Amino acid sequence: MIQFLLNQELRSEHALDPNLTVLNYLREHVGKSGTKEGCASGDCGACTVVVGELQTDDAGREHIRYRSLNSCLTFVSSLHGKQLISVEDLKHQGELHSVQKAMVECHGSQCGFCTPGFVMSLFALQKNSDAPDPAKAHEALAGNLCRCTGYRPILAAAEQSCCGKQPDQFDAREAETIARLKAIAPTDIGELNSGDKRCLVPLTVADLADLYDAYPQARLLAGGTDLALEVTQFHRTLPVMIYVGNVAEMKRIETFDDRIEIGAATALSDCYEALTAEYPDFGELLHRFASLQIRNQGTLGGNIGNASPIGDSPPLLIALGAQVVLCKGETRRTLNLEDYFIDYKVTARQESEFIEKIVVPRATAEQRFRAYKVSKRLDDDISAVCAAFNLRVENGVITDARMAFGGMAAIPKRAAHCEAVLLGQPFNSAVIERACAALAEDFTPLSDFRASKEYRLLSAQNLLRKYFIELQTPHIETRVTAYV
């Protein structure tokens, strides 16, 4: 059984199809049709809901953290121990919520289909803001598409709803909600079981290892932003899933003198602060990683584990010399991330083995790390080419070189020939040009609807040139902003 709060209503579910999304649960099982399906792939934001989780801050104070999610990509099993808020829950005692009023007063709605999703993104923005901030508003709304208004009135609604905000019914009920969430906090393995399909929800790494050993055919579910597409887009059935999002050990970020250890189930939005502090370009790229709804849900381990050749984080992590810790039963092994990827969607992971955490070396003064993403849109788009460069230059000579690319091969891959040209050479334009030529030996990219093979190779070469120019003229601020 799993338990969660639907606003303030306790829901206990057991014999429920584990392949059921939160979107369809709301619309078909509880009669809340305000949440809309626009794309069923996490691209439009019409299905946005907010999930509240119990958190404890550094001072030991308990509070509820509210985050926007795409309900079309969220399986119901991931709600275990949490609070789900949909657009119907905002109106209180006959009065619209302040974010709804702002949308009305700023004329932020026309056809209205996308409006519930915008309202829920604004609600999450308001809950996580102390004052109007245009950058945060753009970030919060980048995953919501509107075909009517042109966004200006919606951004005006964001400003109004965050300006002098007043306590609402959720603030008034916070103590009560915290008590109710504590009362349903999972204490044992949860399960949804419809007879022919099941999803298991472990709480510890040990339980996860045992379950995965017992069900090696199971699909591991973390954020689900990729896995859920098999159900919503390809109409496949997932007979057995194991949800890892309640394994607290795999959601930790620990900083040591020489490394950062990030649990594989850590949401990308939670990774931001730690990675940005060490590598600002990594943080900039995370801002362009899909939408805030996806970053609130998708995990760093999932972005690695799905072995996509166009995943945004693997090229950066490879260039930084990151490692993955793999767990199988009571056995663990550490693997360089570049060795984890073998071929298209083929990895070094063994049966019943899973990524427990990612180990990222801390930055040093000698490193010159930069990352770039080329895509057709600045926000919420997949890379045509993603490049990460990490050189060590001492006394004008390149003493270490790590360069990795996504979108250039069947896997995220280092540019071995390019690195060999650079090592031991002076850091000048002539050497960079020879290194650019060597990229043609490293990669034979494919043409697809995102870019031609010629465009990809030329882009990769130009990004290396861009990297060199920026290091020579550090006042130029154009990193991670390339797009077609």
Automatic annotation (TrEMBL):
Q: Quote the InterPro entries the UniProt record gives.
A: 2Fe-2S-bd, 2Fe-2S-bd_dom_sf, 2Fe-2S_ferredoxin-like_sf, 2Fe-2S_ferredoxin-type, 2Fe2S_fd_BS, Ald_Oxase/xanthine_DH-like, Beta-grasp_dom_sf, CO_DH_flav_C
Source superkingdom: Bacteria
UniProt domain FAD-binding PCMH-type: residue ranges? 192-365
Q: Which Gene3D superfamilies has this protein been placed in?
A: 3.10.20.30, 3.30.465.10, [2Fe-2S]-binding domain (1.10.150.120), CO dehydrogenase flavoprotein, C-terminal domain (3.30.390.50), Uridine Diphospho-n-acetylenolpyruvylglucosamine Reductase, domain 2 (3.30.43.10)
Q: Which segments constitute the 2Fe-2S ferredoxin-type domain?
A: 1-90
Nucleotide-binding among the record's keywords?
A: no
Provide the GO MF annotations for this entry.
Answer: 2 iron, 2 sulfur cluster binding; FAD binding; iron ion binding; xanthine dehydrogenase activity
Looking up Pfam families in the UniProt record yields: CO_deh_flav_C, FAD_binding_5, Fer2, Fer2_2
Keywords associated with the record: FAD, Flavoprotein, Iron, Metal-binding, Oxidoreductase
Its Enzyme Commission number(s) read 1.17.1.4
Q: What class of enzyme is it?
A: oxidoreductase
Q: Does the keyword Nucleus apply?
A: no
> Mind telling me which SUPFAM superfamilies this protein's record contains?
2Fe-2S ferredoxin-like (SSF54292), CO dehydrogenase flavoprotein C-terminal domain-like (SSF55447), CO dehydrogenase ISP C-domain like (SSF47741), FAD-binding/transporter-associated domain-like (SSF56176)
Q: What is this protein called?
A: Xanthine dehydrogenase small subunit
